[in-house]
Specification:
Oligomer: homodimer
Largest sheet of chain A: 8 strands, parallel
CATH superfamily of the largest domain in chain A: Dihydropteroate synthase-like
Strand order of the largest sheet of chain A: 8-7-6-5-4-3-10-9
Structural class of chain A: alpha/beta
Number of domains of chain A: 2
CATH architecture of the largest domain in chain A: Alpha-Beta Barrel
Distance between the termini of chain A: 32 Å
Strand content of chain A: 15-25%
Helix content of chain A: 40-55%
Number of strands of chain A: 15
């Protein structure tokens, strides 16, 4: 992996983004912001599954007026997502938000941006310059690539902010197309010092969208880019947070909850491995500790992977060997495998708690 | 994206792998190979969803004896997966398979490998040198990294093959750990000319496993590596093929079936977008043409993304505007959106068929 780019650190509430700290996971509420109760309830569910920063849409003054109440009800930093109307950004800052997201595609009037920056500076509220492929500023130059237009839009707004001596900046350049997105982030990473918020925009429903996001966000993280990530999925926002951690876990950038190694099964397998893996996964969902468990179907890679995990099952014909930290501890019938493994998981959880 | 590495092309049956042709999608049957009927039935389901090469396990001589019957029943090239016993490889070649996979971790006796190579050469059957992190050859040198051990295992067996003037070679170096896997492939890609079969081994159940595979395989494809891919998931093998295409589609490396752009929804959305996107996705599943459809919740990125797609919906309050190739064609009530969109999809499919 490429060594991580060290960006300038900023603080969104009490969460540091950038400067080499671990990558921060965020999501966005899907409730109507003016429905304070529903929004707080959803954010609390997101906090419980590891969301570290939450963003809410601020489409109108009613929504802006609810931000302070939402902030009181939640424990993680609150970011207001603003489009079109800079006055909503001013109201959000007054409401006590921990961060703003502005879209240079639809808040481009320098006088309006300046008003927001003055207020943000006074309260030390960071601003994300959030460019999106679907809402780029108009251009007369048809020859410019989408990547160039994205980078130019961001750099234009960054300059406005810097000219007012404001540097609490975070940047995103999201598109649906993965190579476009990666190229845009790579380009801007080389020409400005601020932290990067990564995402693939409008990536779709959880099935396809988590794969597209994993390819795009994963490639950028592999290349050393990214200080915070948001996976955008058309589904429950807890799925966004779960997918974000899976991406980070697969690059060893964050640890959260169990990791399951399981083989795809093949004609060599002599147990019902798919059911076994599903049963283990279901019961492991209740485990919050970062335990690595392997569920393996045969003698080819089974013992190797099972020994490499904290706990592992390597199956043979109708039976399975259970390994703990590389040591074979017992061999049990297929029907007893899940219970025996989970008893060992419980022991291990107690030991490390 | 990095320009694709051009490997030496080989032919697995009538499918070319390497040499710059599009990345080939493969999977592995999960049936008992000796159950010819179940295996052929599963492979036919995989063919129908785009699988282009199929591998089956050959754990014993009974399985080896069934390969010719399986080959007669299917339309895509058949690869025999061999571990431990080189005589099964000889039997598979006699049975008419289109390719072999040998594991240097458990078939390392040069005399045995030589016998297989002679038979493979006679019938021009390619061999995949398939190294797996869970079954590496033993080593006395504890200081070697897993990456080094994987690369050395592969290069050792490649040398045996080359020394017998055999070059119908494909190489894989799969591990569960993504950075390890990517590093191993990057290393070997620079020191030998053969095509690469990419995969993240034992990546888990479809939820986590497809994300881990997307990060790993996606990063390698982004770096220009890879001639064929297999996503290993503990689940139905059609899920492996679907995930493989989603990975390839997100890097614009293959086109297959529809692509859906849909926004994650937020407090700005005034329709039930999640249900709408799910309904569209369900009905698009029957469309085999590569149509890009956008389902967008609001005016921020909605019109931009909807215009960029072949067909798109950009929603407002209880209504949606439908775009075809960038042109607004009508605005309809939320309840009529799916039917109106799908009527347009049908028209487009007829027009391009």
């Amino acid at each position: 992996m490429t060594e991580r780019r060290v960006s300038r650190a900023i603080r969104i509430g009490d969460v540091t983004v950038g400067g080499g700290v671990p990558v921060v996971v965020q999501s966005m509420a899907k409730t109507h912001t003016a429905d304070v109760r529903a929004t707080v309830e959803q954010v609390k569910r997101l906090e419980a599954c590891g969301c570290e920063i939450i963003r809410v849409a601020v489409p109108d003054s009613e929504a802006a007026g609810c931000l302070s109440a939402i902030k009181k009800g939640i424990s993680i930093p609150l970011v207001a997502d603003i489009h079109f109307d800079h006055r909503l950004a001013l109201a959000a800052i007054k409401g006590g938000v921990d961060g703003l997201r502005l879209n240079p595609g639809n808040i481009s009037d320098p006088a309006h941006v300046a008003k927001v920056v003055r207020a943000a500076k006074e309260r030390q509220v960071p601003i994300r310059v959030g460019v999106n492929g679907g809402s780029l500023p108009k251009t007369d130059d048809e020859s410019l690539s989408v990547v160039t237009r994205m980078v130019q839009a961001a750099m234009g707004q960054i300059k406005l902010l810097e000219d007012m001596d404001f540097d609490l900046i975070k940047v995103s350049l999201k598109a649906f197309d993965v190579p476009t997105t990666v190229e845009a982030y790579k380009t801007i990473a080389g020409i400005m010092p601020y932290p990067l918020h990564l995402g693939i925009t409008e990536s779709g429903t959880p099935g396809c969208g988590s794969i597209r996001s994993a390819v795009g966000i994963g490639a950028m993280l592999y290349l050393g880019l990214g200080d915070t990530i948001r996976v955008s999925l058309t589904g429950d926002p807890t799925e966004e947070v779960a997918a974000a951690y899976e991406i980070l876990k697969s690059l060893n950038l964050r640890v959260r909850g169990p990791t399951m190694v399981s083989c795809p099964t093949c004609g060599r397998t002599e147990v019902d491995l798919i059911s076994l893996a599903q049963a283990v996964e279901k019961r492991m969902a209740a485990v919050s500790r970062p335990i690595k468990v392997a569920v393996m179907g045969c003698v080819v890679n089974g013992p190797g992977e099972a020994k490499d995990a904290d706990l592992g099952i390597a199956c043979g014909r109708g039976r399975g060997a259970i390994f703990r930290k590389g040591e074979l501890i017992c061999t049990v019938d297929e029907k007893d495998l899940v219970d025996t493994l989970m008893a060992e998981v419980d022991k291990l959880v107690r030991a490390i708690s």
